[in-house]
Design goal:
The protein has about 450 residues and is an alpha/beta fold. About 20% of the residues lie in helices and about 30% in strands. Bound molecules: uridine-diphosphate-N-acetylglucosamine and magnesium ion.
Length: about 450
């Protein structure tokens, strides 16, 4: 089948109205990736070499997301929302270029897996002109119902147009479809809009194909794969299904998840071998964890890289650009942002390291802060190798701390520190012997109980 060429058309016009959102529906995220992103990924994985996304008028954010995730994809605009078959014709030029298989996906069906799409393509390879995915709906309301006769699939009846008897049918159209490339335009051009919504229904491709003497088939799919998301409740349901899948994939790949149901992953999270993740950890987008690392409980990571054997948490926060080398230790209530922490360095308690480099083997004491922001711009802190930063130090950027140097606790460092030196910025300690005792004695005298 691989030698057959494939064009995937993703229908993604529409607003976020039922999501009660000003964001277009398809840009809402599941596991840290837009629904549209999931669909584009599934299309590519099912062998589509060309992608076209149909968007509505004035949806610059949707176009931007397509360009970000699939720069090679074509973007076409459907000016009026006149139905799914009408939306397909916005991609007419792409279809006219000629292709064996056309896959049609909906931008709001993020759980679809490549194998379902491959089944559709297989049906085309076996001679069907139209193939659609079907499923048994627990509650079929809203879905198109499959009309099956002795001779197989005869048509699809949209919910709004169904007779009471047809409404009882539970075998439903999932929406995802495949059309033979050489027949697609002939079929699409014959679809009319004489139905209750006055829309051009893509589902009419079945009946049209049969009238033309072509074959149309329905292929069973898992309901979870083909859920269309319209509301925030459905979005949350899709998130739960996706999280289950991602956890199962991580476990299969050998990651130790102590309490899988409490770990939240992103679609692009990657793990090496022998990684352990303790309970209640959140992986935002863009996180990679290397072999032997341990992510301890209640840690939040996004846009971060954790090197071999590193230990992070409990209660740590790695923000975008955090890059930890091998065997780094990041402990509780430490936040790292846009900073490289080189091999063997440690920041074990209560610190903020932002816009910085911490050299190999350095130790960052509790309460250390890189003061990277002056209210207007961000500045860098460069910490060399084997540096010891004493507790509660403020490193006011831009500033450089040379290799092997030592910062005395409680210092506010505003000037560069040369190699192997001690920098101390603190008043001389005053000690008054006996002072405390004298104070106590005085107070006990004046406040003596009757
Ligand atoms: C569609 C199917 C229905 C199926 C259901 C599964 C048709 C006519 N009906 O109905 O049989 O059971 O999906 O969820 O196809 N879109 C456009 N332009 C348009 C109209 C729609 O781009 O003019 C896009 C939407 O953004 C969406 C997709 O096409 O991604 C499906 O449209 P939607 O209105 O959700 O169709 P349903 O009524 O759900
Ligand atoms: Mg829908």
């Amino acid at each position: 089948m691989t030698e057959r060429s494939c064009l995937a058309i993703v229908l993604a016009a529409g607003e976020g109205t039922r999501m009660r959102s000003s964001r277009p529906k398809v840009l809402h995220e599941v596991a840290g990736l837009s629904m549209l992103g999931h669909v584009l990924k599934a299309a590519t994985r099912s062998g589509a070499s060309r992608l076209v996304v149909v968007i509505g008028p004035s949806q610059p954010d949707t176009a931007k997301e397509v360009r970000r995730l699939a720069p090679e994809a074509g973007i076409v605009e459907q000016r009026e929302r006149l139905g799914t078959a009408h939306a397909m014709l916005a991609a007419r030029a792409a279809i006219e270029r000629g292709v064996d298989d056309i896959l049609i996906l909906f931008g709001d069906t993020p759980l679809v897996r490549p194998q379902s799409l491959q089944h559709l393509r297989q049906a085309l390879a076996e001679g069907a002109a139209v193939a659609l995915l079907s499923f048994r709906a627990a509650d079929p309301a809203g879905y198109g119902r499959l009309l099956i006769g002795d001779d197989g699939l005869r048509g699809v009846r949209e919910d709004k147009d169904a007779t009471p008897q047809e409404k009882g049918i539970t075998l439903c159209n999932a929406g995802l479809m495949a059309l033979a490339g050489d027949k697609a335009l002939a079929i699409l051009d014959r679809i009319g809009n004489s139905n209750s919504k006055r829309e051009f229904y893509l589902t009419d491709a079945v009946a049209v194909a049969r009238d033309m003497g072509l074959k149309a088939v329905a292929i069973g799919a898992d309901e979870d794969d083909v859920r269309g998301i319209n509301t925030k409740t459905q979005l949350a349901e899709a998130e739960a299904i996706m999280q289950k899948r991602l956890r199962a994939a991580a476990l299969d790949a050998g990651v130790t998840l102590v309490a899988p149901e409490t770990v939240f992953l992103s679609a692009d999270t990657t793990f090496g071998k022998d990684v352990t993740v303790e309970p209640n950890v959140v992986f935002g987008p863009g996180v990679s964890i290397e072999d032997g690392a341990t992510i301890r409980a209640f840690t939040h990571l996004e846009g971060a890289h954790v090197g071999k054997g590193a230990r992070v948490g409990p209660y740590a926060r790695l923000r975008p650009g955090a890059d930890l080398g091998a065997d780094v230790h990041i402990g509780n209530f430490v936040e790292i942002k846009a900073a490289t922490i080189e091999a063997g360095a440690k920041a074990n308690h209560l610190a903020y390291i932002g816009d910085a480099r911490v050299g190999e083997g350095s130790n960052i004491g509790a309460g250390t802060i890189t003061c990277n922001y002056d209210g207007v711009a961000k500045h860098r802190t460069e910490i060399g190798r084997n540096v010891f930063v004493g507790s509660n130090s403020a490193l006011v950027a831009p500033v450089k701390i040379g290799d092997g140097s030592y910062i005395g606790s409680g210092s506010v460092i505003t000037r560069d520190v040369p190699e192997d030196s001690l920098a101390l910025e603190r008043n001389q300690q005053t000690v008054k012997p006996g002072w405390a005792k004298r104070l106590r004695d005085l107070k006990t005298l004046t406040h003596k109980k009757p």
